[in-house]
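Input structure tokens:
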């Protein structure tokens, strides 16, 4: 995980991460940002891994408690809670990671037009927040059935889209 992108203010970054990679990439990114100062994490998929982040930080610093205190976490369990968290967050110089943001928007009990409207409202709020600090949103590259429009909307609104792929093992050499 040495090849994480540089993050810039005024940009909304979208990282499309295959399921096996999402935790490691998120933990590494949160740890790197926490070593520099405060970092805000909005957990939309209930995948925040405090132990993994602590392990990543422990490998980099002896000031583990201080680095962990830099991490501010808020969880959203519905798409409506995501909107509330984003709209109530003031723009600051603190980078924000929205982990698995679309997970709450895949709730089929909310009609698709309403979910699309809420994703668009989320983009408005994310753009507002990224004026002073970078914003990173993570998502799976292959949404569940019916989620393609939601991911397309998020991709269209992002300034940078980073696609991570699993390394394919080299084929075994055949001797005969």
């Amino acid at each position: 995980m040495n090849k994480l992108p540089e993050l810039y203010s005024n940009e909304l970054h979208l990282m499309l991460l295959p399921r096996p990679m999402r935790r490691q990439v998120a933990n590494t990114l949160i740890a790197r940002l926490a070593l520099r100062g405060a970092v805000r994490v909005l957990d939309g998929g209930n995948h925040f891994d405090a132990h993994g982040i602590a392990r990543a930080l422990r490998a980099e610093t002896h000031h583990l408690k201080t680095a962990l205190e830099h991490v501010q976490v808020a969880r959203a369990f519905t798409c409506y809670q995501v909107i509330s968290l984003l709209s109530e967050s003031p723009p600051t110089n603190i980078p924000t990671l929205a982990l698995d943001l679309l997970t709450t928007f895949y709730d089929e009990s909310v009609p698709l037009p309403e979910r699309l409207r809420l994703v668009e409202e989320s983009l408005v709020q994310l753009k507002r927040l990224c004026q002073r600090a970078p914003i990173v949103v993570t998502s799976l590259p292959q949404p569940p059935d019916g989620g393609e429009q939601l991911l397309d909307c998020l991709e269209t609104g992002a300034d940078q889209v980073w696609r991570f792929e699993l390394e394919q093992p080299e084929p075994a050499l055949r001797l005969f």
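The chain has a mean pLDDT of 90. The beta strands are 12-16, 39-43, 71-75, 96-99, 135-139, 160-163.
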